[in-house]
Design goal:
The protein has helices at 2-11, 16-28, 32-44, 48-55, 65-75, 81-98, 101-136, 143-153. By secondary structure, it is an all-alpha fold. The mean pLDDT is 83.
């Protein structure tokens, strides 16, 4: 699967989903530095979901530039409910690190409310996106590869 995403990025280095899924692969293999790099790249390419995965791998301080970015995204009207749920959980993690339990719980509450409505659909969409990226690039026809990709998104 990693080779698949590397080949996609050779053709399209700005493919934020490919960077995101590479981050999943690295995270799953315990390659935290490589996962951080992949998630940061996906965030820099405006992949909102990548903020959640990046937030799980870092420790926040009050003046963290990534926290400021996530706060701006949260205020934006240009993100989907699906992305908003991921962002709420990322902000909750950041505020937990900072020690602001009031904001942490507010974002957890909002994220959970969205999650209850959308996450079964979200998981399905994430698996389909992962598979479709590779199929479009004609890199990915092996059932084991598809299963592995789906496993990463659980």
């Amino acid at each position: 699967a990693l080779q698949c995403f590397n080949e996609i990025l050779d053709d399209d280095p700005e493919n934020s989903d490919a960077h995101l899924y590479r981050g999943f692969l690295f995270m799953n293999k315990g390659q935290h530095h490589d996962a951080l790099v992949a998630f940061k790249k996906a965030v820099s390419l405006n992949n909102v979901k990548a903020n959640f995965f990046l937030s799980e791998m870092k420790q926040y301080t009050l003046n963290d530039s990534h926290l400021s970015l996530m706060q701006s995204l949260y205020k934006s009207n240009h993100i989907t409910e699906h992305d908003r749920a991921f962002l709420c959980f990322a902000l909750a993690k950041a505020y937990e690190d900072i020690g602001d339990t009031e904001k942490q719980f507010l974002f957890l509450q909002e994220g959970n409310a969205i999650k209850d409505d959308h996450f079964m659909y979200v998981r399905y969409v994430a698996i389909c996106n992962c598979i479709n990226i590779c199929r479009k690039a004609k890199k990915f026809n092996d059932y084991k590869e598809v299963s592995y990709c789906a496993h990463l998104i659980k």
